[in-house]
């Protein structure tokens, strides 16, 4: 496998966030050839407005779009807020969904996971996120569903994930994500040979 660059988006702006911890834990589980950059500052994005889009694109939105475009794949970990994804993540996805027809999520291998304090482990948030990523034409990893339930019991005081079954599911999710990335690369090679 050649080098792979992943971008991690946490849907939580909270300093002690379990979902940001999930991404940090993923980073520590990855083999050397896979790099994960955890995107900072989703909270600096203004609320989406077409007045801030277009020629005078807001710099934070430009930064996010470029980071997605330059990555081989995206990994999203979001809390569930009131049975849905967080407003911070929805806002980031809205900013990333323009310009219509040429935005950076089109065909982008993308996987999602999430941690919550409750017993459903963000399933409703993940279902809504999947619908949005479908609208964005992302190349979505469908399985496994990684639902880290009762997060308070699954991390130690240093934020390390201590649940072996969650770790195994995360590794399977990353395998499936990297398989999609390899597929995209192969298709691009075939297209360039044919042209
Ligand atoms: C506004 C708000 C709404 C929430 N709604 C849900 C919910 O619908 N389902 C759920 O499992 N947890 C819910 N929670 C609890 C979150 O799962 C918990 O705060 C979790 O730690 C958030 O993720 P984070 O640690 O990454 O910030 C909610 C929390 C907040 C602040």
Task: Provide the descriptors you would attach to this structure in a database record.
195 residues, alpha/beta, two-stranded antiparallel ribbon, 8 strands, 40% helix, 17% strand, binds flavin mononucleotide
Show the helix and strand layout.
Blueprint: E1 4-10, H1 18-29, E2 34-38, H2 59-70, E3 73-77, E4 80-81, E5 84-85, H3 87-96, E6 109-115, H4 123-135, E7 139-140, E8 146-148, H5 164-194
Parallel strand pairs: 1-2, 1-3, 3-6, 6-7, 6-8
Antiparallel strand pairs: 4-5
Residues 12, 14, 17-19, 79-83, 116-118, 120, 151 line the site of flavin mononucleotide.
Describe this structure in words.
The protein is of the alpha/beta class. The longest helix has 31 residues, at 164-194. Strands 1, 2, 3, 6, 7 and 8 form a 6-stranded parallel sheet that branches. The protein has a two-stranded antiparallel sheet with strand order 4-5. It has 5 helices and 8 strands. The model has no long low-confidence stretch (mean pLDDT 96). It has a single domain (4-194), classed as Flavodoxin domain (Rossmann fold), CATH 3.40.50. The chain is globular and about 50 Å long. Strand 4 and strand 5 (84-85) form a beta hairpin. The chain has helices at residues 18-29, 59-70, 87-96, 123-135, 164-194, and strands at residues 4-10, 34-38, 73-77, 80-81, 84-85, 109-115, 139-140, 146-148. The protein starts with a strand and ends with a helix. Flavin mononucleotide binds at residues 12, 14, 17-19, 79-83, 116-118, 120, 151. The site of flavin mononucleotide (FMN) has 15 residues, from helix 1 and strand 4.
């Amino acid at each position: 496998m050649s080098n792979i660059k992943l971008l991690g988006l946490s849907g939580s702006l909270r300093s002690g966030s379990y979902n940001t911890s999930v991404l940090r834990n993923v980073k520590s589980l990855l083999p050397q050839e896979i790099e994960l950059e955890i995107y900072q500052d989703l909270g600096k994005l203004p609320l989406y407005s077409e007045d801030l889009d277009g020629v005078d694109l807001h710099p934070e939105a430009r930064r996010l779009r470029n980071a997605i475009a330059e990555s081989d794949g995206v990994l999203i970990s979001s809390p569930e807020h009131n049975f849905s994804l967080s407003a911070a993540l929805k806002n980031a996805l809205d900013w990333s969904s323009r310009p219509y027809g040429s935005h950076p999520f089109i065909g982008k291998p993308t996987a999602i996971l999430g941690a919550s304090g409750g017993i459903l482990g963000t399933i409703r948030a993940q279902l809504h996120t999947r619908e949005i990523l479908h609208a964005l034409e992302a190349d979505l990893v469908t399985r496994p569903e990684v639902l880290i339930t009762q997060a308070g019991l699954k991390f130690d005081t240093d934020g390390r994930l201590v649940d072996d079954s969650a770790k195994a599911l995360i590794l399977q999710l990353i395998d499936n994500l990297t398989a999609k990335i390899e597929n995209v690369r192969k298709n691009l090679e075939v297209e360039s040979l044919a042209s």
